[in-house]
Amino acid sequence: MIIWSGQGDLGRSVRAWYDGDAVAVASPELSKRDRLSVRGPIDQLAPLVEQVLAEVGTSFRPFGDEQVIRELAERVPGMTFAAAFGWMDTTDAPAQTTTAAWLDGDTGVEELLAEAAPGSYAWPGRPGVLRWAAATGEAGELLSIAADAWSAPEVGFLAGVATRPSVRGQGLSRQVCGFVTAELVKRHGRTGLMVDRDNAAAISVYRKLGYTYRDVAAAHV
C-alpha cells in the first residue's frame, strides 16, 4: 500500500517522511481522498504522524493496517478511528474467458454508476481515473464496468465496479474484473483494490480471481 500511495510521484505532489522504521506517505486525491499511508512501529509512527499532519494539514486521513490505525487513534491527540475495510491485491493475471474490453471513452458509464453503484469513488473525469472496461449487451449497452484508476507504476488499481441490476448473477462482474486485473498485472506487476469488509459476495469474486485480503482502516483528525 505504501508503494501504491507513492503513485510514482514522490517529490512532486506526493511527499514521504520516515523516522527509523516508520514511514508516512501523503498522497492528495488518492482514491477520492487526501490519504496519509502509514507503516511501522507505533512508538516511532505516532510522533511522525503528528508531525506530518501539522505540516500537510488534517485533510489527509491516516490509512494503513487496521491494528496500526487503531493504535494511532489512541496515541495521536485529536485523532479518531474512522472506518475499517479491506485491501486486496494479487500478482497473478487470472485466466478468463470474457468478452470484456476497454472502452474507447466513457459514454454510458455515469448512467450505469448512478443506477448500480452511486457510492463509487471512481467516476469519469475525477483525478486519477484513467480508463474504463465493460461487458456489453447485443446493442452495445454497458452491462458491467470497472476502471483502471489511481494506478501507480508498480501497483495497478481496480475501482468503479458496477453491474446493471437486471443482469446480476450472470458472472459479468467477475469477467470484467478478471479482464482488468489481468491487464493491470501485466502492465504493473501487481493489482490492488479496496473493498467493504462486509461485502462477502465481492470478496468471494476477488478471491476467485487470485486476490488476497488484509484488514485495513482509516482515521481522521
What topology does this entry show?
Blueprint: H1 2-6, E1 15-19, E2 22-30, E3 33-39, H2 42-56, E4 61-65, H3 66-75, E5 80-90, E6 101-102, H4 109-116, E7 129-136, E8 142-149, E9 156-163, H5 172-188, E10 191-195, H6 200-208, E11 212-220
Parallel strand pairs: 3-4, 9-10
Antiparallel strand pairs: 1-2, 2-3, 4-11, 5-10, 5-11, 6-7, 7-8, 8-9
Helix pairs in contact: 2-3
Question: What can you see in these coordinates?
Answer:
The structure is a single chain. This protein has 221 residues and is of the alpha+beta class. It folds into two domains: 2-86; 92-189, Gcn5-related N-acetyltransferase (GNAT) (Aminopeptidase). Helices cover 29% and strands 35% of the residues. It contains six helices and eleven strands. It has helices spanning 2-6, 42-56, 66-75, 109-116, 172-188, 200-208; strands at 15-19, 22-30, 33-39, 61-65, 80-90, 101-102, 129-136, 142-149, 156-163, 191-195, 212-220. Strands 1-2-3-4-11-5-10-9-8-7-6 form an eleven-stranded mixed β-sheet. Helix 2 (42-56) packs across helix 3 (66-75). The protein is elongated, with a radius of gyration of 18 Å. Residues 67-221 form the N-acetyltransferase domain. InterPro entries: Acyl_CoA_acyltransferase, GCN5-like_dom, GNAT_dom. It comes from Kribbella orskensis.
DSSP strand count: 11
Distance between the termini: 21 Å
- Mean pLDDT comes to 96
Corresponding CATH superfamily of the largest domain? Gcn5-related N-acetyltransferase (GNAT)
CATH architecture of the largest domain: 3-Layer(aba) Sandwich
Give the strand content. 25-35%
Strand order within the widest sheet? 1-2-3-4-11-5-10-9-8-7-6
Class by alpha and beta content: alpha+beta
Output the CATH topology of the largest domain.
Aminopeptidase
For the record, the count of structural domains works out to 2
Pfam families: FR47 (PF08445)
InterPro entries: Acyl_CoA_acyltransferase, GCN5-like_dom, GNAT_dom
Domain N-acetyltransferase: 67-221
Protein name: FR47-like protein
